[in-house]
Write a structure and sequence with these properties.
Layout: E1 11-14, H1 16-27, E2 33-37, H2 42-49, E3 55-58, E4 78-82, H3 94-98, E5 106-110, E6 133-138, E7 151-154, H4 157-166, H5 174-183, H6 186-211, E8 219-220, E9 228-232, H7 236-245, E10 251-252, E11 264-268, H8 272-287
Parallel strand pairs: 2-3, 2-4, 4-5, 5-6
Antiparallel strand pairs: 1-7, 6-7, 8-9, 9-11, 10-11
Length: 298
């Protein structure tokens, strides 16, 4: 609460941001939830598991996966969007997201990767002037603490109370609580800001290297702002398999709604040495011919 300048009743600690999606789906009474895609798939999965019929707003590659607030149905009473969005790495302007707010609508903004953005530009965390706003934060991305399961919700006291009533007892472990305190201390916030600037420099190096593969049909979604980039690659499945054989794991894109087909990969931003090695491996993966089958059918 102190970290975002809010009273404590506007904050709810959760077992990672993923638990918050489940609580929202189970606790809030909604008629028409809408998820803006492509994005992290767990919010929609949680809503469907809770018995909701979910509508999708699919942002288009031709538009750089930028948000068009007018594309969201006016009668949607719950809207979920990521910022910066996983897997596109697009950072939507806070003012554009705020335009989605309506009386009677819950606006859920997943800011799990916002601390990887220098200065947390376009963050809505800490805002109390946007009606129905729910901001989700994770403390495990920058610090590599996924196994501890620690995140939090920022919202009105009324919504926080509703979510808390649906939450199991003792959802956050003592080690996770200790990590939460450590990760929001001034020294930690300064370290995270330095890391965000480092990520930006490493991402620029990665994007510049990927530009040299344009002749192979490789295209990077522009204006990436997160700790990953989304890349269009012909025969993404084959390239992903060959990269794995060369020691580099990349995220497939076809499981994200709106990224159908076999031409999307999400690449994590890494340090200079790792990026150089990856680009060398990508050269091999793009130029190598698929291996012949180990046996011929009779």
């Amino acid at each position: 609460a102190a970290r975002h300048g809010l009273p404590a009743e506007r904050v709810l600690l959760t077992a990672g941001a993923a638990e918050a999606f489940v609580l929202l789906a189970r606790a809030l009474k909604v008629r028409r939830p809408v998820v803006v895609h492509p994005q992290f798939t767990e919010p929609e999965a949680a809503l469907r598991d809770a018995g909701h019929t979910v509508d999708r707003v699919l942002l288009r590659a031709a538009d750089g996966f930028r948000l068009d607030p007018a594309a969201v149905p006016e009668d949607a009473d719950l809207v979920v969007i990521g910022n910066p969005t996983n897997p596109t790495s697009v950072l939507h302007p806070a003012a554009e997201i705020a335009r989605l707010a309506r009386p009677g609508r819950t606006l859920v903004v997943d800011e799990a990767f916002m601390d990887a953005v220098p200065g947390e530009r376009e963050a809505l965390a800490g805002r109390t002037d946007v009606p129905g706003l729910v901001v989700l934060r994770s403390l495990t991305k920058t610090w590599g603490l996924a196994g501890l399961r620690i995140g939090y919700v920022l919202s009105s006291p009324e919504i926080v109370a509703e979510l808390e009533r649906a939450q199991p007892l003792w959802p956050v472990s003592t080690p996770a609580l200790a990590a939460a305190v450590a990760c929001v201390e001034p020294a930690a916030l300064a370290e995270a800001e330095r890391a965000a600037h480092g990520i930006a420099a490493d991402r620029a190096r990665l994007v510049a290297g990927l530009a040299s593969f344009a002749g192979y049909g490789v295209r990077v979604v522009e204006s990436a702002e997160g700790p990953f980039v989304l890349v269009r690659v012909p025969d993404a499945t084959g390239v992903r398999r060959r990269l794995r054989e060369l020691g580099y794991a990349v995220r497939r894109g076809d499981t994200f709604p709106g990224l159908g087909g076999d031409d999307w990969l999400r690449l994590a931003v890494r340090d200079e040495k790792t990026v150089e090695g990856f680009l060398t491996a990508l050269t091999t993966a793009l130029t190598a011919h698929p291996r012949p089958p180990t046996h011929q059918p009779r």
